[in-house]
Amino acid sequence: MPQQTSPRPADPALRTTVPATEPTGYRRLFALPGTRAFTAGNLLARLPAGMFGVSAVVMIAGSRGSYALAGAVTATGLVATGLAGPCIARLVDRHGQARVALPATAVAVLGSLALLLCVRYDAPDWTLFAAYAATAATPNTGGMSRARWAHLLRDDPGALHTANSFEQAADELCFMLGPVLASFLTGTFFPEAGTLTGAVLLLSGMLLFTAQRATEPPTRARSKAPSPLRAPGVPALLACFTATGAVFGSMEVGTLAYADAQGHRAAAGAVLALQAAGSCAAGLVFGTLRRARPRLTVCLTAMAALMTLPWLAARLTGSLLALAAALLVAGMATAPTMVTAMTLVQHRTPPDRLNEGMSLVVTALLTGIALGSATAGWTTDHTSPTWTYALPPTAATLALVLAALQPAP
């Protein structure tokens, strides 16, 4: 039966002022019935996103002796995820989270287990690509959680800002802890341990998340609302997300190459984790803001400026410790930028296509990460890892220009 569309606040361009008497804070969020349970399930299901790539590389490279093959397999998975994500999200919007997310998760888990078995029993290389491509059926867990908050807090923009900040901090935490956990499992037990554990966490977390039916957004009758790609302002925001993804991709490759050149390859993961830690901390603080919040252009200006710090640290000091400190500070611009842009996407996307809109954000980010990684690899090979650090501030400046050129909402 068609559901009535609840009124949604007009796009405030992130300058909404929350009244001083309005309850705010993270305790306000988790006092709502069912929010703790769906958040716990979503975090369990989201953690494997930071585990699968590392686990697959270690497992395949260790068995086949080829990092090139391992990288090609994981790249195939990224491309498949970018293509499949919006389609799965569209089905979630139309039929509901539980009805679509659970079977999609089952397909993804079977793909992970198939990859494990193909590696274990020395199946032909093409089977690795096919198995890993099946993991693209993994639903956008972070997007579904944000959709629940958007439904629960549709009349409370201040609390929705806090919820979006928490979700961004959760993303950073998962991508900080996921690779560490995967490395520990594959190194301590057996090469397939990371993939196996990730599959178990994904399935159990999704079962817990989808069991919380009271907080699930209602399905809506199919409307004549345009695709998010045609919604005013959304394509420009997706272009910004693509440029922002290039910041992350180039920074990751540059840090790995720089640490390797310094003879500290094993420390690269810890150094990159500091960037995520800085973003996580900044996201939690950003969520407590009660007054007018900055525009996207202000956030991107801060990102472009702070992303110069790792470049300066690498050029002027040559110290991995100084680079780590610079990455910690530079990461503090990430969460406010992502929260601000994601909130704009929520305001500008038709209500019955919210999951699809946020899945398109993931596709844009993955595209940018791939472009940034490829460009950083070429720059490292033809110049030096130090010059690779010029790419993140350049990509952030491009994102700033794109944001500045978009029409006013």
UniProtKB/TrEMBL annotation:
Cell compartments where the protein resides: Cell membrane
Annotated PROSITE patterns: MFS
Recorded superkingdom: Bacteria
UniProt-recorded name of the protein: MFS transporter
Keywords (A to Z) from UniProt: Membrane, Transmembrane, Transmembrane helix
Membrane topology according to the record: Multi-pass membrane protein
InterPro entries reported for this sequence: MFS, MFS_dom, MFS_trans_sf
Pfam families from the UniProt entry: MFS_1 (PF07690)
Domain Major facilitator superfamily (MFS) profile: residue ranges: 198-409
TM region(s), chain numbering: 43-61, 67-88, 100-123, 189-209, 229-248, 268-289, 296-314, 320-345, 357-380, 386-405
